[in-house]
Design brief:
Blueprint (H helix, E strand, L loop, with lengths): L3 E2 L5 H10 L5 H11 L14 H10 E2 L4 E7 L6 E6 L5 E9 L2 E6 L2 E3 L14 E4 L2 H15 L3 E6 L9 H11 L12 E5 L3 H9 L5 E5 L5 H7 L8 H15 L4 E6 L7 H11 L5 E6 L13 H12 L4 E4 L13 H7 L4
Length: 346
């Protein structure tokens, strides 16, 4: 009999599993609380359960492994980047960022990525596999346990395309924001996408109150294709239409992530085109000076150029910020620490 990943089960499913092994359904509530509130990593830590029940749990279920391989701590701003190993020895990155409003964790949704964005380290080597919803949850649980402080904000913006792992993503959102678990507010959760149009519309129809962040990065179809090969099957017009649909369905303002690449998408013409795209849309633009990736030749613009680009947008009533750079003295680019680990013997 194959054991079941108990961390992946919602409370209703766990109650059903208790009945299958001839245990009282109320035990499910106790176990769920141990897993998703107390964040235990072993059945033996569930001290209000009998020894016989703990043994039955061991026989029928397992808790997915997440071993800390490496931790990098920024001496500039305290950002922490963690490298975790999974049951099958795949490795993923998770990032902790501390802000005045609370602790924010950026999690991965896949091991590797198949989107092929040319400025990103995460996609080098392609997609290995999707992460289970339990592996997405466990990243947050591990970080909260490591620092001994509550996580209040979650960003699904690490390695992988979240909407390419749609079913696990939705299960993750439901469980991490559920009242029986950590109960993180949906309004404190952001999901990033390269622009998978059907899945963006599906997500809108889920009626979550999360923030959707679109990786825009190019102001024309041609430039998006240059930077993001996925744009060939997700035309810019359709992607913007899906953003409009998301806003109409949820009332939640979409954020446009725009990585500024020196000499590629930071020109005056790019600014004019971006203004034309967004002038009548109530969306927010987050400018991100690109983090250099060793395997790529892209460079970030200097601070003055980035500020000039921002000012052009603001003068045309575009709501815009420049993302504060975090962890600049560690492997800042998404996927970089994982990439270094995988290539350490080369």
């Amino acid at each position: 009999m194959d054991k079941i990943d108990i961390l992946s089960l919602n409370l209703k499913e766990l109650k059903r599993e208790m009945e299958i092994i001839n245990e009282k359904p109320f035990r499910a509530k106790q176990i769920y609380e141990w897993l998703h509130v107390h964040l235990v990593g072993d059945f033996e830590e569930m001290t209000n359960l009998s020894k016989s029940l703990r043994q039955r749990l061991v026989e029928h279920f397992y808790l997915p492994k997440m071993e800390l391989l490496e931790e990098q701590v920024s001496q500039v701003d305290g950002t922490r980047k963690y490298l975790f190993a999974l049951d099958d020895n795949q490795v993923i990155e998770t990032v902790l960022m501390r802000y005045d409003y609370g602790n924010s964790v950026c999690i991965s949704s896949q091991a590797g990525c198949r989107m092929g964005c040319t400025f990103c380290a995460s996609t080098i080597g392609g997609l290995i596999r999707n992460l289970k919803n339990s592996e997405m949850l466990r990243q947050i649980y591990q970080v909260q346990t490591l620092i001994g402080e509550r996580i209040s904000n979650v960003v699904v913006m690490g390695t992988g395309e979240p909407l390419d792992n749609y079913d696990n993503l939705v299960r993750f959102i439901t469980m991490i924001t559920g009242g029986d678990g950590l109960n993180i507010s949906q309004r404190n959760l952001t999901v990033s996408t390269c622009g998978l149009v059907p899945e963006m519309k599906r997500l809108a129809d889920e009626n979550f109150q999360i923030t959707l962040a679109l990786s825009l990065h190019g102001t024309t179809q041609k430039k998006r294709e240059q930077l993001m090969p996925v744009a060939r099957t997700s035309p810019l017009k359709s992607v913007l239409g899906a953003c409009d649909y998301y806003y109409k369905k949820t009332g939640r303002r979409v954020t446009f992530e725009y990585s500024l690449v020196k000499g590629v998408n930071d020109t005056d013409e790019d600014a004019r085109e971006l203004i034309a795209l967004l002038k009548k849309r109530p969306f927010h633009v987050n400018l991100i000076p690109v983090n250099p990736v060793r395997e790529r030749k892209y460079e970030k613009p200097d601070a003055a150029s980035a500020l000039s680009f921002k000012n052009k947008l603001e003068k045309n009533a575009i709501n815009v910020t420049i993302r504060r750079e975090r962890g600049t003295d560690i492997d800042g680019a998404c996927g970089q620490l994982r990439r270094h680990y995988l290539n350490k013997d080369e």
